[in-house]
Amino acid sequence: MKIVIVPDSYKGSLSAFDVGNTIKEGLASSMKGVEFEVIPMADGGEGTLDTLISATNGKLKSVEVTGAMGKTITTCYGILGDDKTVVIEIAKIVGLPMVSTDQRNPMLATTAGIGEIMLHVMSLGFRHFIIGLGGSATNDGGIGMLTALGVTFLNHKGERVVESNASSLQEIHEADFSTLDSRLKECEIKIASDVENPLCGDYGATAVFGPQKGATKQQVKVLDVALSKYASLIELHLHDSFQNKPGAGAAGGLGFALLTLEGQMFSGAKICIDTTGLREKLKDADLVITGEGQSDYQTLYGKVPIQIAKLAKAYQVDTILISGALGEGYEKLHEFFNSCHSIAPGPMTLEHAMKYTKPNLFEKARNIGQLLNLGFIK
């Protein structure tokens, strides 16, 4: 029997690598003669860099850039095993968990560090990018990144806009891409995202994701109007439309900015699936196990587990879901999974659940292994 374990991370608790290996250990403790293969997965957000580097025998590189709140940080990017593709995971540069709760302010957060890394690797000769969006603390529409890459933003006096964060969006009167770093014309940019939100409106970057980044109700209104104006000025200059394209609202509008650089939007999970060669590994699998921090109705909208389940079904392989928790509307997932499981052994606080994620996951996997031995679950 061959079991392929393909989990996303349990965000804030365990990496996808740790989730996969814990499930493997739990199953192995109660099952004999089983071949296991662990393939950590991601969707463009947290863990994307590690997944792609691990799958291709790539390497990590350290770099100093501007963090979300304007201070210099030391972070990393990756070079895939092909030695020509750079992977940038924005969660490692402007990630929300990197900013303490009391410091979160989307009006002041900037994506400048993303542009700085792109400049750095272009100077080293790289022209192929995979940029994973997800988990950002920013809501600047990508103005920080675009400014770092050379785009000029002017106010109504014809002066350069000084601050490259969301607080300056209302000042912009004109956008000029003629000053953009010319090397970008030689680049291929793949945008890895797990959301399809437009830039503005009720389902846009600010309305949906702004509050979790610290935006007040008033700031949400102000930012949405400012982003719409900013985007319209850029579209007027480029004679093209981007703000309503799926994914434009990802990472606080960074998706929009990357689209203006001729980036191509892809499902982050699909990029990871393709890069890890998962399809080939499913051909002789007897069972697939996947999971995430919490599974609910939102899982249906392109999250890692549903992507894995659909792919496994195409190869006629059964799939089990093991997640940290099962939330609202998870019942709809039974259409895609043979069984769905939460690792919580009983009622507990979120703090307690996150503290004991690993032992709870091990025990759940061990029990599932026992049921698999008896043929009661598949």
From TrEMBL:
GO molecular function, one term: glycerate kinase activity
Keywords: Kinase, Transferase
GO biological process: organic acid phosphorylation
Source organism superkingdom: Bacteria
UniProt keyword rRNA processing, yes or no: no
Family, as annotated: Belongs to the glycerate kinase type-1 family.
PANTHER family linked to this entry: GLYCERATE KINASE (PTHR21599:SF0)
Name assigned to this protein: Glycerate kinase
Species of origin: Chengkuizengella marina
